[in-house]
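User: quick one - fold this with FE2/S2 (inorganic) cluster bound?
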Amino acid sequence: MATIRVIYENGSPERLIEFDPADAPFQHDGEPGSVLDVLLGHGIHLEHACGGNCACTTCHVIIRQGSNKFSQASEQEEDLLDRAPGLTPTSRLGCQAVIEDPDAEIVIVVPRYTINQVSESRGE
Ligand code: FES
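Assistant: Sure. Structure tokens for the protein plus FE2/S2 (inorganic) cluster:
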């Protein structure tokens, strides 16, 4: 079994999910077995304005542990990430980052701001 611990930069309580990557997809948005797929499929919300189609940055997450357990980022994902607020060297798009190790112990951080939230705070 793999695990994902979800830490929220805004101080919301952490969540821990245990899952079998072989059971993917867990729902219909994002790549099967991606962070977005696993979270939504286990009742944990993650912004995903484009429906998990690698066309926005609202699903931006920071991989704090286990970044080598994921699929490689595509050029399109890298290009989009360049526009994500709070980009880090281990940033990924949650809908594209697929967990490939069945025993992975992943820790992710959900950043405080996404483009959606930045727009909302500006009243746009
Ligand atoms: S949900 Fe839009 S890129 Fe992931």
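One thing worth noting: Residues 48-50, 52, 54-56, 58-59, 93, 95 surround FE2/S2 (inorganic) cluster (CB under 6 Å).
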